Amino acid sequence: MCFNISIKNSKNAIENQLDVVFDEDIIFEPQHHITAFSNPLIPVITSENRNNIQLYHWGLIPAWVKDRKQAHEIRKLTYNAKSETITIKPSFRSSIKDKKCLIIADGFYEWQSTSTGKVCYYMTHPQNEVFTFGGIWSDWLDKSSGELINSVSIMTQQANQLMGKIHNLKKRQPIIIHKNYREKWFDSRLNYDKILDVSFNFILTSKIIDSPLKVK
Prior knowledge:
18% helix; 13 strands; hypothetical protein yedk fold; single chain
């Protein structure tokens, strides 16, 4: 699964690499470690606004959620969305049709189970470039306050050879959309299997670290 990421690149570097710009009112600070469990705001590009980077909450809240309490409970279960079941799960099946997004990162963390305990690996692009996870988004209206909350989930798939050795129990990996397929991802609706095949073979580098907080 994918619950811990990094975005160490600066705002300008991200804009230059992806050829898009942050919304004018966004304050963005690079971070070595972002955990899904804090429901953070993370940078995304949505299918509805492909020229701008916005900040959405990590942990998707479906539009049908009734109240804040239900929203808080359900987003604990939606940090990731399995590609194999995304079209049938009530939380995801509406978004996958026409609310795809790209979630921006430059690294993620995964733990390998060993006989002596867990070992943390840090996964990055070979040239330390920004990459984009395949994701889905939703907008939920809190009727009690009138607040509109935008949220996302990172999609995952079966692990490839590298990630299968690292994430060696559940054997999952986040879906990374190759730069040549980003527009196709937005427009794919339910016909995205070939894009996932490219993601499966996405090249990453890995290194063992003591803790995400110690990555420099």
